[in-house]
């Protein structure tokens, strides 16, 4: 399939915090957008179209961000699209923006994703009592905890793996000046001593609730010193429930990964990918997604984590930015993974740069592990190895 | 077919909104009975102020005072006011161009009758008695050629946040198949349906098998006992929670079903609940039954040996 090559030429993100009371939603988005445009060395006339994504509407009570943010996103007189795939939306937004360049529709596209969790209550929004049902739902943690338990049982994983991921990601977050949580002194013992929220998920194994935004400038040609060339993108979806659904290792994720690696010409992901930014809102999802993505065989993901291979300096550094466990503005979290992957291959990841990163994965999932979005970016144009 | 069941679903939350620098000045001024706008790159004065210029997208910072009087540019009569609207009697929605502004503000005009409304008419702000720094500080507009009340300086803190209550009133309607299931529950029965293509038994039944896309019709009555496939222990309290933590939220796979559903497990210590544990329903007293899964108060251990992992591993 011949298509226009596309690259990330600039990324920007806010300082993420529990409450960014100093800015409106528009101001929050602009903090990220202004940084992305400066990083790319472009100005408003250079942008042909804008794509915006945010978390589900009940999360912040904003139904049509494309209406009230058009001024702030410089979209007046330009195409403005809104993307909506629950927690994976940031990743999906980046993929949609990439497709507009790859299809030759636009030369330069601005992609933006945001969330102001402080203006709402995500636990409440995810637990609306639907008539006739049992009101046992308890937010995202309550949804995912039983499936984490299933993973532990199925893989025979030792209990401390979840805590190991938390320690790694929070320490990585301490290297990232934008991170919400920066905990250089966190230890396995302190994580395991933290409160059990949704057994088997502990407080320290849970993402924070953050305000933040992320923006990416995509282009058909480099506009500044560096570019992250898009080698592959993939999106897949599956229903929340059906008889025999694999909730631990969902088929949509496996299918998306298989399509992604094929498109990127990657036959051995563990050997050929230098760094991965994977959507891990609860620590156990690191080994679960390592398997789902095909980095290891089923049931083996936790061994990569246990061996320290997912730390910076390991065979596959996972979430050197600190990941979702260090910052979680839900609507933006997926795009942050995609942007951090790009920063790595652009050599612009600062103190959490992985040496020699040339090929990187950005990954997001959303809903009840229903929506999967991913891309592979490289320091060279696709097809040049 | 009998009518599907439906019930009210009320969703309400008081969202907050950080205003940012531009709207903060607008809201703070309203508290002082002043209306302000912001000057755009083309010289126009935007009321309410735009945080970013509609033409250049640059941040706008030049605040301009405008009058509390102006002209109706267009209007529409609201004969039946709704909850949350500025007035509880019939009124006009109007685009009001305040004197000194270049863009119109949408607000209510308390005209009493549509006969008193016309495009081009003069109106003035009717200020609310208790002002908090919100658009509702303008109670409404009223027809008048006279000036509005004078500004009233205060030494309060700048307004940096507003509360934006949202109240949604839905009527939630179950599908025909779920309604049959719910009516069965009202009689203490658990009625699933089998897919004619894959043979899987769904409880609650769906209008169509999610895998095969074909309608399911064959009714299957299931027993009120089964196996816990997996679970979590909820220790965290949150807004709107209906059950006091800690509690065990478990996927229960009824014997003969091919899909588990989420319910509550009691009757043993939370840390004694296990994957594979055999459980049975504890029904509420019959006089409390209705068309809801809540007729089953909870599931409790039966004391049987645990189900072997292989018998439920494909349901995880
Ligand atoms: Zn079927």
Automatic annotation (TrEMBL), chain A:
Species of origin: Umezawaea endophytica
UniProt lineage: Bacteria, Bacillati, Actinomycetota, Actinomycetes, Pseudonocardiales
One Pfam family cited in the UniProt record for this chain: Thiolase_C_1
Record domain Thiolase C-terminal: where: 246-370
InterPro entries in alphabetical order: Thiolase, Thiolase-like, Thiolase_C_2
PANTHER family, per database record: ACETYL-COA C-ACETYLTRANSFERASE (PTHR42870), NON-SPECIFIC LIPID-TRANSFER PROTEIN-LIKE 2 (PTHR42870:SF1)
Name this protein carries in UniProt: Thiolase domain-containing protein
GO terms, molecular function: acyltransferase activity, transferring groups other than amino-acyl groups
């Amino acid at each position: 399939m011949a298509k226009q090559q596309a690259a990330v030429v600039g990324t920007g993100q806010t300082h993420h915090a529990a409450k960014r009371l100093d800015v409106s939603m528009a101001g929050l988005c602009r903090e990220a957008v202004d940084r992305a445009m400066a990083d790319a060395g472009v100005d408003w006339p250079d942008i042909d179209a804008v794509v915006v994504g945010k978390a589900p509407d009940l999360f912040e009570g904003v139904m049509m961000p494309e209406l009230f943010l058009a001024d702030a996103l410089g979209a007046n007189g330009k195409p403005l699209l809104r993307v909506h795939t629950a927690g994976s939306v940031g990743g999906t937004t980046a993929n949609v923006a990439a497709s507009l360049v790859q299809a030759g529709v636009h030369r330069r596209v601005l992609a933006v994703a945001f969330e102001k969790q402080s203006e709402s209550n995500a636990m409440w929004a995810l637990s609306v009592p639907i008539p006739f049902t049992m009101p046992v739902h308890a937010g995202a943690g309550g949804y995912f905890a039983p499936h984490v338990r299933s993973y532990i049982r199925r893989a025979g994983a030792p209990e401390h793996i979840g805590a190991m991921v938390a320690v790694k990601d929070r320490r990585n977050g301490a290297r990232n000046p934008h991170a919400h949580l920066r905990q250089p002194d966190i230890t396995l013992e302190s994580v395991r001593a933290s409160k059990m929220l949704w057994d088997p998920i502990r407080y320290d194994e849970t993402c924070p609730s953050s305000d933040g935004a992320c923006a990416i400038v995509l282009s058909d040609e480099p506009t500044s010193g560096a570019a992250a060339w898009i080698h592959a993108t993939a999106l897949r979806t599956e229903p929340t429930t059906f008889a025999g659904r694999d909730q631990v290792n969902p088929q949509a994720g496996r299918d998306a990964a298989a399509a992604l690696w094929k498109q990127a010409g990657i036959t051995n992901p563990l050997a050929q990918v230098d760094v991965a930014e994977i959507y891990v809102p609860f620590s156990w999802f690191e080994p679960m997604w390592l398997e789902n993505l095909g980095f290891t065989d089923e049931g083996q993901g936790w061994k990569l984590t246990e061996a320290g291979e997912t730390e910076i300096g390991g065979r596959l550094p996972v979430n050197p930015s600190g990941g979702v466990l260090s910052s979680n503005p839900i609507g933006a979290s997926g795009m942050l993974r995609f942007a951090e992957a790009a920063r790595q291959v652009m050599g612009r990841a600062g103190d959490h740069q992985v040496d020699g990163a040339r090929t990187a994965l950005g990954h997001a999932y959303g809903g009840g592990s229903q929506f999967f979005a991913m891309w592979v970016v490289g320091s060279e144009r696709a097809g040049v190895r | 077919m009998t009518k599907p069941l439906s019930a009210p679903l009320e969703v309400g939350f008081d969202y907050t909104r950080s205003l940012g620098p531009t709207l903060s000045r607008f809201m703070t001024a309203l508290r002082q009975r002043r209306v302000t706008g912001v000057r755009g790159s083309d010289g126009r004065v935007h009321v309410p102020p735009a945080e970013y210029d509609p033409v250049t997208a640059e941040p706008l910072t030049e605040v301009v005072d405008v009058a509390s009087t102006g002209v109706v540019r267009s209007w529409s009569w609201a004969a039946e006011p709704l909850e949350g609207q500025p007035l509880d009697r019939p009124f006009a929605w109007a685009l009001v161009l305040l004197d000194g502004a270049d863009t119109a503000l949408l607000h209510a005009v308390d005209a009493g009758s549509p006969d008193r409304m016309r495009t081009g008419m003069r109106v003035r702000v009717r200020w609310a008695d208790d002002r908090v720094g919100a658009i509702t500080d303008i109670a409404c507009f009223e027809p008048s050629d006279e000036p509005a009340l004078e500004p009233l300086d205060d030494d309060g803190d700048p307004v940096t946040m507003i509360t934006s209550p949202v109240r949604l009133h839905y009527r939630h309607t179950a599908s025909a198949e779920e309604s049959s299931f719910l009516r069965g529950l009202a009689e203490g029965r658990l009625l699933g349906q089998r897919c004619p293509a894959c043979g899987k038994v769904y409880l609650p039944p769906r209008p169509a098998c999610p895998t095969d896309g074909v309608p399911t019709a064959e009714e299957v009555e299931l027993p009120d006992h089964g196996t816990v496939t997996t679970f979590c222990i909820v220790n965290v309290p949150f807004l709107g929670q209906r059950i006091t933590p800690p509690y065990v939220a478990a996927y229960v796979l009824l014997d003969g079903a091919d899909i588990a559903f989420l319910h509550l497990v009691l009757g043993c210590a939370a840390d004694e609940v296990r994957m594979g544990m055999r459980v049975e329903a504890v029904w509420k007293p019959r006089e409390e039954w209705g068309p809801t899964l809540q007729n089953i108060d909870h599931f409790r251990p039966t004391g049987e040996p645990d189900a072997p992992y292989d018998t439920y591993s494909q349901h995880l």
